[in-house]
Amino acid sequence: MLRSSPAIYRACSSILKRAVKSDSRYYHIFSKRWFELTLVKFQRSLLSNAAIYALANFSVAGVPLILLPILTRYLSADDYGKVGMFTVVSSFLFIIVGFNTHGAVMVRFFDSKIALSKYVSSVFLILLSSVFVTSALIAVFPTPLLSLTTLPVSWLIIAVGLAGCQFLVQLLLTLWQCSDRALSYGVLRLSHAITDSVLSIFLVVGLMASWEGRLSGLAIAWSVIAIFAFIKLRKEGWVSNVVDKKYIADALRYGLPLMPHAVGGLILSMADRLLVTKIMDIGSTGIYFAAVQIGLILGILADASNRAFAPWLMKKLTNASLEEKSTIVYYTYLYFLGIIFVAIILSITIEFFIPFLLGPEFIEVSEITFFMFLGNAFTGMYYMVTNYVFFSTRTGLLSLSTISTGIVAFLISIFLIQNYGLLGAAISFMIGQILLFLTTWALAQYCYRMPWFGLLNKMCKN
Predict the structure, then answer these.
(1) Is the residue at 39 inside a domain?
(2) Which InterPro entries does the record cross-reference, listed alphabetically (predicted)?
């Protein structure tokens, strides 16, 4: 353990050497023991944070899964398809509003030269401007989205507001994540999950409001949490009344090159649902969306692991030695194997629970869950390698890689859905995630060299 972090050990030893002068014999023993305990404590902290992030993200992203047994019995496949389509639209609009600038806050958080409150305020101004412009465009030119989504214009505009609320909440969560405040992160996410669930059940089951009840619960919950997030940002001094043009430009320089990347990622993850609607029907979209929610069991766990891992990796890569890089790569490979194993186990065990999870109209889901789980496993592997591209700030290259992969996956989806229906959609989703992982892994090595293949050769020889 000591050898794996020589730079940290030397720094700690230097401090202890000045503090413990009485007896060098005891100093040497004590310093090494203290350093071992500190590393163990840090590793436990990383794991506990990952557990909190997993629980928090599962509570929110898992709401559709938790509501699945209820919604698939109170909503028809067509109605559930509209819920799924609204989710696709709001995910797309989340990319548009704010222009991905919340990610710039994480990168600049650790820069002592940045006035953080001014930076966050500048990002907030970008958010408000983009929400206003996007809402106006949809109101004036609704036809393209109407024909693509089959949703009313009013719900499309509500989706813009919901995306803005999501961005604002994500801004606060990013700051808490960087501040290592996993518990606060978890409490807020859990509060949101409870609000969303209670409102949706009341509106769908109690008032029989159908798909509009589910979407109303979703919109109200995000609005309430967004108001709280804004108050919290003000109270904790992360938002000021001053914005800075150079900070706006800096945030946009980070976020805008990621737009094609985000769009490409959305094509990879959402195009299958849009194509199912266009090639098949909205009822098939409802069935497919139910399968997506089940597959997200693994996707949520993968996302939570990355949220705990990413800030630690960003700090570690600044002055990482070759030995430290090898250690990171070794454990990343173990993660790859582990997440594929979990995907296979989940796909086998979920078969026994589908009759209890879903209504009789959605039983067809059982035929495609295997590919949904494997696709989410490769998404988790993608998370592990994309961090190196973000660290190198070569986001333009990442955008090029993602959008090209998205286009290829889109064409594959058209062919497979036309010929194999929902099974083809699930297979195309898995293929898209595999392509995304492999291309991003190659790009990550180009942007920031890690001993991926050297360590792999060494492990194979041993």
Answers:
(1) no
(2) Poly_Biosynth_Transport, Polysacc_synth
